[in-house]
Amino acid sequence: MNTVFTQDQMLCLYIYELYSSEKKIRYLQYTGMLAVTYYLMKQGLFDNRYVDDILIYDYLDARRYVWEDKQFMRDINILRDDKLLIRSRIRTLAYRDYNAHQISQAGSDYLKKINFANTSSAKQLLSLLSCPRCKRLYSIHLEEDAPKLICPRCKNKSCIIIHDFLKDDQKKTKLHLEPFYL
Amino acid sequence: MSDPHLKLQNTRILSAQWIPMGINNLIALNRFLGSHKGYESGTEFGIKGNFSNIKQGTFDMTQKGVMLKPGKFDFNHFVNMDMEDNEGHLGVYADSLGHVRIAAKTDPCENGYEQHILKELSGKLNRRMVQGFYPVLSETQQDMLHTLYGSDNLVQEPFRTISYSLIIAESCSIPIRDTATILKAQKDIFAPICDWLTDHFSYNSCHIFVGQSACICIGEPDESLKSYLHHLLFIKSLYQVSQRLYARISSLSKDIQQSRNAISGAQLKHLTRINKKSTQFAAYFARLDTLDKTIISAIEKQRSIYDRFCRDHAELSLLQTDFSIEIEKSSDRTVIIDHLKNELDNLNEASAQRMDEMMSQNGEFMNIVLLVMTILTIVGFGDIFGLSIKQNLIIAGIMLPFIVVAFVYIRNYFKNYSSSKKSRKKR
User: Fold this and answer.
1) How confident is the model over B43-53, as a mean pLDDT?
2) Contact between residue B41 and residue A83 where contact means Cβ atoms under 8 Å apart
3) What single DSSP character describes residue B38?
4) Residue of chain B whose Cα is closest to the Cα of A142
């Protein structure tokens, strides 16, 4: 592998390592990844390299304003192009097709090879995504009002609501506007 | 007799199917594939499993899919894509007229391949196309294909689908001067791949042998010949589908006839089964009707493209008859499908009539039972309360109309239902 990966790219890959697996045919929805990354960004994990930006994207069965930073999107594509991540599109019974990714076996092997899990940033990421009570990895839930990180064991006793991921499109506009006719 | 050791060198194998498409499905396919996004790496499609709880960030599936990477495309008309499955990379082409083909080229350094190997390879390509490409089609397309081929799971049973192959070989181990000469010397030279030949010709140092199952082109086709081969693959794969469609219509027609025969004398359990089948038939006919209309539309559009091609390449206008015949077959099929829809209506009517008959019979039987029970109950009361002879006679007088009615009912019941049972048996 000739690409030199950035710290942020490795952190993104590590998130996929925690939540997906090629061997187990486990996938992480892209919207779920956006939510988790936004949460970690707000916790200062990415040192302000990812910024607050807006995207219209699928959230559950609607198109909503959500967070996505363009640099983050580029980082994911770089990992894909180097075959460390596999992008998938999946049909569901209900609504439309969903984008999801999984770490490839090559990606898992690469993280093991560089012993990334033992770096301080990886440990910090893991601690932010683990329940403080029982240390289990949070599971990602996309609820109507906001995405949540919920401990699979402690349930609602240990739950993080990811505020502001869904941009509030009900807010009144502050600009002065006038009617226009074509 | 064909030479079993005859080899074809530097081969390209194409396996084509006709799939109900249309411009809407093709646009949806391009959107689904993300053709316009220009990703450098492929995306996984056709993953097996059930992703039903969309609120879960992480979800498990049961089997991996294939990687598809779109290449050259026109959003409204066609798409090329690289398909990577667990056996390797292949090229897939799909257009809005339903022409879909999968293709691969063999190693040019090899000495060449015998015909049976190439035939086996084209079968495998077809299998890989069904398993890799069918899952990305829309549900409507898949439903129509399931109805056409009579299978609910074509991915597990890819052998049920039908395709037409083209093998392009740079050269052959036997020198060929022209097709007529070689066929005069060895009539069945390419029978292992093509089955019987329907046409052959030589064109610009290429030799083309068009068979029932496949076509072989020896030599490097130029752009005109490639266009001709594209049209050939379209019309030949469509021919296969139209044959299959006709066979499917025939088998459904036999099914309807059998159900019709089973109605007379059928009891409730059998009638329920017949009604269920009838609902299925209605769904099948709706899909086959749509499929037929899609075929007609595709042939007509492809034909007009081919006609324009023939204006500049008269020597390659050999497929005109094939197009005309397919159009004629489509018109004929439409009449048959309409006729069968009427037969299905008759089946439903007969089934409803039989149901009415059964309900009436049951109703009348209940009435008789109630009358007889009423009479017996009143007679019983007379006995229990120890009525006098005079009182019993009064009761008998009051009961007389009931007894008369009961006899009339019983007589009519046997007249209507036992005689109709006899006449049903006679039929």
Assistant:
1) 89
2) yes
3) -
4) B55
